[in-house]
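URGENT: need a sanity check before tomorrow's submission.

F., can you look over the chorismate mutase record below? I want to be sure the sequence and structure line up before it goes out.
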Amino acid sequence: MNQAPTSSPAPTVSDDVLSGYRQSIDNIDAALVCMLAERFRVTQAVGVYKAEKGLPPADPGREERQIARLRRLAEEAQLDPEFSEKFLRFIIDEVIRHHARHQSQAQTPA
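Structure tokens as predicted:
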């Protein structure tokens, strides 16, 4: 009778070098979250402004310029440009969704 192998719990790592790397990663993750929060505060203001002025939520020309710029920056930083584009596209899509919500709220009579 075959029994599935049991997995033992992962060993606790007390390696100082690995702990140092992980602390750096944690610090970078915290900075990324703070930067994204700030970026979304600004894009929320853009969304409100666009709604007030009757501008469309999306600006495909700007989006393409931003993606091209980010791809260049990624290449210079030795980061996979495909990854950077996917990351920015995810953010842009979320921003457009927020802008569209502002548009619909601005069009709803009070």
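My own read: The radius of gyration is 22 Å. The domain at 19-107 is CATH 1.20.59.10 (Chorismate Mutase Domain, subunit A). If you see anything odd, call me.
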